[in-house]
Backbone:
């Protein structure tokens, strides 16, 4: 079992089936690893019915092994035809939809703006931003029928802070915040809540890869980059995957029904990004 699945299983400390989650119908893009897997684990452990998509067959297989009964579909969330197929499969399996979690994301390049190719920029925008539009577009009719609809968009603290050498990623995450706040107003009359989660430096494989790339780009050691990051975080630690998952659970719960158009900074008090 890989580290991300072990991290996701740590979310299971909550009481299954309680607090309004039983039978909740949840779709999560890029749910095969990292934050997406942790969120899927949390919902399953609380009695929800979950269907995930991912572009990695091995990640989907591992997630299904770790979470028996979960639905899964191989799909690129930035591809309109693939998203439509996923929704057809998931809606047949779930019989409706109560919660959409837009989690699909790529890190993109770590480089000066003059060194980033247009194709690299476009790829980041397609996965990190267009995927959310494509999924919301498919989800809204079902969420309107739900009576308890919730959309949870994964942004980042890079969606509120400048992030040198990571401009495509930061720009996409700022855009997710704008999308979230606009959709909250547009869909509020249907009693659909729309919120964004802005994780900080998460304790995950992707975060470690980005940190290593940033150290190389800045010409410093990995240890120096890690120390510089932690110095800028109030709690002087990274964010556990389960903390992000618990925030998603709250936003889908009855207790979260009066929150919409909000940015939930699950970041351990980070002040700047380097």
Residues:
């Amino acid at each position: 079992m890989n580290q991300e699945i072990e991290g996701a299983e740590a979310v299971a400390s909550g009481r299954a089936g309680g607090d309004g989650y039983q039978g909740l119908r949840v779709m999560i893009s890029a749910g095969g690893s990292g934050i997406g897997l942790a969120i899927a684990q949390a919902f399953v452990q609380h009695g929800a019915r979950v269907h995930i998509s991912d572009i990695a067959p091995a990640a989907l297989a591992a997630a299904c092994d770790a979470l028996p009964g979960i639905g899964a579909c191989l799909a690129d969330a930035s591809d309109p035809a693939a998203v439509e197929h996923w929704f057809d499969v998931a809606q047949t399996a779930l019989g409706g939809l109560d919660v959409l979690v837009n989690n699909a994301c790529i890190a993109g390049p770590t480089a000066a703006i003059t060194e980033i190719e247009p194709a690299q920029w476009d790829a980041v925008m397609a996965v990190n931003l267009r995927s959310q539009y494509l999924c919301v577009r498919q989800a809204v009719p079902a969420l309107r029928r739900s009576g308890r609809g919730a959309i949870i968009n994964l942004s980042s603290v890079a969606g509120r802070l400048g992030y040198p050498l990571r401009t495509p990623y930061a720009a996409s995450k700022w855009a997710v915040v704008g999308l979230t706040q606009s959709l909250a107003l547009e869909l509020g009359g249907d009693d659909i809540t729309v919120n964004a989660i802005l994780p900080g430096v998460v304790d995950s494989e992707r975060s470690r890869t980005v940190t290593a790339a940033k150290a190389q780009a800045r010409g410093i050691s990995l240890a120096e980059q890690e120390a510089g990051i932690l110095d800028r975080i109030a709690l002087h630690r990274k964010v556990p995957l389960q903390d992000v998952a618990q925030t998603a659970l709250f936003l889908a719960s009855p207790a979260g029904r009066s929150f919409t158009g909000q940015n939930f900074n699950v970041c351990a008090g980070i002040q700047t990004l380097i």
User: Anything to note?
Assistant: The first strand starts at residue 25 and ends at 28.
